[in-house]
Amino acid sequence: METELFIGGKWVPASSGNRFDVLDPATGDVIASVADGGESDAIAAVDAAAEAGPAWAATPPRVRGEALRKAWELMTERADELAKLISLENGKALVDAKGEVTYAAEFFRWFAEEAVRGEGQFATAPSGANRILVTRQPVGVCVLVTPWNFPAAMATRKIGPALAAGCTVVLKPASDTPLTALAMAAILAEAGVPFGVVNVLPSRSSGKVVGRMLKDARVRKLSFTGSTEVGRILLAQAAENVVNTSMELGGNAPFLVFADADLDAAIEGAMIAKMRNGGEACTAANRFYVEASIADEFSRRLAARMSAMRVGPGTDESTQVGPLVNEDTVAKVDSLVRDAVEAGAKAETGGSRPSGAGFYYPPTVLTGVAPDAAILREEIFGPVAPIVTFTGEDEAVRLANDTEYGLVAYVYTGDLARGLRVSEAIEAGMVGLNRGLVSDPAAPFGGVKQSGIGREGGHEGLLEYLESKYIAVNW
Ligand code: NAP
Rounded to two decimals, what is the model's pTM? Predict the structure, then answer.
């Protein structure tokens, strides 16, 4: 297990000598101590990325793609080992961690294929006076900041397109889960990515370290995944040097079930949309809106499925729901549930924090939730499903859009015309229509409103790391 900073192809201690602990969420015990990068380490990482930049940008796209393809192979070969590491530091159930490794590795394979598709354009100007030549060039040095909830996939979803485009990067992983990011660095080095192209800088002083890098004129892009709150701070900082930004921020996904839906499919979809990753996903269904005539049956069946889930340490093969990542997350989930119950909601299952070690919260279904409850406005980020009833399509769409967020929505209906109509009317970057999972490396992932700016994955994901250069040509 690597625990030092990865700068310029070398494993180095923090210049201050400082380290910080990584905890096992199942017990609260320390599992590793990791070098704690500071501002001078951040500049050393930018130096390394800037130095490696020209040669990497000039490396043939096919060669860049082959290094990513090799990284996909290595991740796939070591899937079990990586899943254990993710589960150990993040707490998620192994079944979720294995799913994450496959998903994360796929970004390397997808962008290995996209590396050769940074196509430009050649046209005659409408006036006929000249030719328009558009070529794509890498943006340059990128700072990548990732959250703890998908420690592998959030890193590969940025590193894959950045490297494919010819950019070099400094990755600042979440301090709850730095070990997976360091493992990714080791894999990329083994796959033949040259020294300095990928640098990884775990740090407990994220604000200072990222702020310092954004002040450096060599940094040309910030790609951030995390909360809307931190995203706003970083957008303001990036504005100073007019740094190119991609922002994957918070979500508050509505899950709409119409009375004409296939209820079996809706329950299956609800379980995936809510419980994948134990509810710790930006795409997690946060608000269930169910047409009044089927709400009792839906709530009863969802509560039965939720209460049957096996809760335990993530690293135990039989666990379906692991602990949450840390004490703060459990405390937040607990307070949202208490607040909703005090305002009249009923816990059909779960609803209270167990005693004992570890950061556990039980799968919970709430009915009779007041429309203005905080649990419908804030990201829950835990295994709690609040259910609200609606009558008719207009009300469903109004409730779904009543949020500052716009990442993803889920719609279950047996009427395709209604499904498409509602999907178009919902203010979200993505919609799962009769489907509880939207994430796919081959599709553009991202949000509207305060859920973000830009897209990751698909061809769009590559374009985020390329600048269009227009050359007006006369000859
Ligand atoms: P977070 O608190 O915003 O942290 C995200 C990252 O930013 C971490 O690496 C964190 O470092 C760093 N950070 C925190 N404060 C910073 C600052 N002032 N300046 C620079 N960096 C700073 O989010 P989180 O709790 O890790 O993750 C959960 C959030 O991520 C949720 O809101 C979720 O919806 C969102 N998310 C969005 C997507 C998407 O694709 N839209 C995907 C996954 C997660 P430390 O760990 O050291 O604090």
Answer: 0.97
* 410 Cβ closer than 6 Å to some ligand 1 atom: no
pLDDT of 296 higher than 90: yes
Q: Is the CB of 407 under 6 A from ligand 1?
A: yes
Mutation test of ligand 1: which of 18, 103, 145, 232 has the most ligand atoms closer than 8 Å to its C-beta? 145
Å from CA of 328 to ligand 1 middle: 14
Q: Are 343 and 386 in contact (CB under 8 A)?
A: no
- Among the listed residues 89, 248, 280, 348, the single catalytic one is 248
Render pLDDT for 174-198 as a digit per residue (tens, 0 to 9). Answer: 999 999 999 999 999 999 999 999 9
pLDDT of 475 reads: 79
C-beta 145 within 6 A of ligand 1: yes
C-beta 452 within 6 A of ligand 1: yes
Instruction: Encode the chain in three state secondary structure.
Output: CCCCEEECCEEECCCCCCEEEEECCCCCCEEEEEECCCHHHHHHHHHHHHHHHHHHHHCCHHHHHHHHHHHHHHHHHCHHHHHHHHHHHHCCCHHHHHHHHHHHHHHHHHHHHHCCCCCCEEEECCCCCCEEEEEEEECCEEEEECCCCCCCHHHHHHHHHHHHHCCEEEEECCCCCHHHHHHHHHHHHHCCCCCCCEEECCCCCHHHHHHHHHHCCCEEEEEEECCHHHHHHHHHHHHHCCCEEEEECCCCEEEEECCCCCHHHHHHHHHHHHHHHHHCCCCCEEEEEEEHHHHHHHHHHHHHHHHCCCECCCCCCCCCECCCCCHHHHHHHHHHHHHHHHCCCEEEECCCCCCCCCCCCCCEEEECCCCCCHHHCCCCCCCEEEEEEECCHHHHHHHHHCCCCCCEEEEECCCHHHHHHHHHHCCCCEEEECCCCCCCCCCCECCCHHHEECCECHHHHHHCCEEEEEEEECC
Q: Would residue 167 show up in a list of annotated catalytic residues for this protein?
A: no
Alpha carbon of 171 to ligand 1 centroid (Å): 13
| Rounded distance from Cα 133 to ligand 1 centre (Å) | 39
Residues 447-456 have pLDDT tens digits of 999 999 999 9
Active site residue 248: yes
* Ligand 1, atom 23: closest residue by C-alpha: 226
Atom of ligand 1 nearest to the CA of 157: 40
